[in-house]
Amino acid sequence: MTSSNVRPADMERITTPALAEKFVNEQIAELRAQIGNKKVLLALSGGVDSSVVAALLIKAVGQQLVCVHVNHGLLRKGEPEQVVKVFRDEMHANLVYVDAIDRFLDKLAGVADPEQKRKIIGGEFIRVFEEEARKLDGIEFLAQGTIYPDILESGAVKSHHNVGGLPEDLKFELVEPIKLLFKDEVRMVGKALGLPDGMVFRQPFPGPGLGVRCTGAITRDRLEAVRESDAILREEFAKNGLEGKVWQYFTIVPDFKSTGVKNDKRSWEWPVIVRAVNTRDAMTATVENIPYELMQHITARIIAEVPGVNRVLYDCTPKPTGTIEWE
Ligand code: XMP
Questions:
Q1: What is the DSSP letter of 88?
Q2: Mean pLDDT rounded to a whole number for the chain
Q3: Which of 43, 147, 182, 311 is the most buried (most CB within 10 A)?
């Protein structure tokens, strides 16, 4: 395993399935040499980076890998189930699934400040992971899905699923098999490892998850409105050829209501805001020119299918001035 954090100038860019295959085979050999017959721990969020690391390690050391998937209640619809299906049922990984939903949502109750929410989510994540790590015997390595842009941007480890904050007795030797790869290369490698397209070509998803899209103090009912409307948006974008084309798209449910009429009665319910943006580096972004008919169809579905919602809005704001997320 290379210990350098600098990508060698002559390192070949992984642009074909054959090169991805070659990388996989080399990494398997290196991982076996590094880990031997010891145990390695991985926080598996289901995002592309940690999924690729998991799949590599399963091939390299099989049952010596222990994956911990923390469901903090802020994941998209179907994501925790997909992690269990792909890694436990299909790849036969040693997967610890932690249902920490109540724990996170109880801690977040009444907290409206965005930075405070992020701190709680990040901090609680480390604590849950730490508790699981302590239950396990004989772990000597900690795997991480660090990729090259993470190193270039911060010289540090990943921010939100960051387990670098573990206490001294849980400081394991790091295993970072994709740390010199760019995102497109990670996706190539994911394909070569046989991960499903839905996982490999997934749009970026922030560590605090749906928590920053349920603005202000998170409530369970409004969080469900975010999750359900996001699922409808993703389904419609996929059906209409926009999946993989638009860089990031999601819904927000803000913490205010407006009047409406439903079934001949006055309603007092939340709006759903749809955001769809394109960018190269997330520093600036333009708004996707979504077909109006599609927007009308998405609106009709959200209003009919998501409880507590009476309006749908499209966010036409580029970055700047609007950030991509609303919090
Ligand atoms: P903004 O909202 O700053 O987002 O324009 C730029 C990109 O970063 C993602 N993002 C985050 N990712 N933790 C993350 O891991 C965060 O707290 C966070 N906030 C924003 C956002 O989804 C977008 O892709």
A1: I
A2: 95
A3: 43
Q: Which pLDDT value is given to residue 3?
A: 74
Residue 254, token pair as written in the block? 């803000």
Q: Kindly report, residue by residue over 249-279, the tens digit of the pLDDT.
A: 999 999 999 999 999 999 999 999 999 999 9
What's the CA gap between 326 and 279, in Å, rounded? 16
pLDDT greater than 50 at residue 162: no
Sketch the domain layout of the chain as residue ranges: 17-200, 213-314
| CATH of span 17-200 | 3.40.50.620
Q: What angle do CA 100, 82, 50 make, to 5 degrees?
A: 75
Cα 274 to chain centroid distance, Å, stands at 19
Distance 94 CA to ligand 1 centre (A): 30
How confident is the model at residue 155, as a pLDDT?
A: 53
Q: Is the CB of 183 under 6 A from ligand 1?
A: no
> What is the 35 CA–ligand 1 centroid distance (Å)?
33
Q: Left (φ > 0), alpha (ψ -120 to 50) or beta: where does 216 sit?
A: left
On whether the CB atoms of residues 96 and 132 are closer than 8 A, the answer is yes
CATH top-level class for 213-314? Answer: alpha beta
